[in-house]
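cache lookup: miss for this entity combination. No prior model stored, computing from scratch. Input as submitted by user K.M.:
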Amino acid sequence: GAVVSQHPSRVICKSGTSVKIECRSLDFQATTMFWYRQFPKQSLMLMATSNEGSKATYEQGVEKDKFLINHASLTLSTLTVTSAHPEDSSFYICSAGGPTSGGVETQYFGPGTRLLVL
Amino acid sequence: KQEVTQIPAALSVPEGENLVLNCSFTDSAIYNLQWFRQDPGKGLTSLLLIQSSQREQTSGRLNASLDKSSGRSTLYIAASQPGDSATYLCAAPTSGTYKYIFGTGTRLKVLA
């Protein structure tokens, strides 16, 4: 089946630094990818929709200047957490629309990236 | 707006038991529904995906059913093992989109 990878899988950084997380569709192209985050002991929440070649669409309450999304190619979307602070520590997951299953486009999820800001 | 609820929030069972995890959703106009497993501190592992035209999917000891009319899905785990201990999440997309709404999960512990 289709595979979505994320890099890095785990990152620790100092407060004030920026961190870039990559989401790649390995064997298919995706014009749209989605970014989610999961705070400790909570469920995953959609952050934004990443659109290839155009600006990302952010969900209500998500700061676009804080979470920069770039979807430069059909196989890569990046999420940059700018000036990270401890409250940004979370689990970030992406998904990408891939090969159809039963005639319907299916979303494939990456394994996630765990960010810890000290 | 899609809302996804999972019951129970936590479950502890002895090894070997068959068990059922429940997921309900409010908007039945979905393309599919997915079940995931998440181990502590780890990422998501996709378990089963059920398309809207399907009623169930099976993978090994796992069987997931989907009833769109009632807004429910169940994940059946047969002959549970300690290695099945994890949090199980279901996710359904918001109507007409590929934006998934996740349930809060069921934390399963299978005792040896």
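stored under new cache key. DSSP finds no helices and eleven strands in chain B.
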